[in-house]
Specification:
Elements (H helix, E strand, L loop, with lengths): L4 H9 L1 H5 L6 H18 L17
Amino acid sequence: MCQNRVFREYWEATRRHRKSLPETSEEFLLGRMMDDLIQELADSDTDEWWVVGEPPGDPS
């Protein structure tokens, strides 16, 4: 999903909307995870997308 140009354009266009979410909401946290994955993919020096990112931490 993060490699799809159309999705990345949509994600960038909706950044302002995600910033309006409460920081404790699941939607905000998911948005932050996606932002991190997209950035890690952009910074990666490999085309192997499956080696990018870290699993989410323990929710408790």
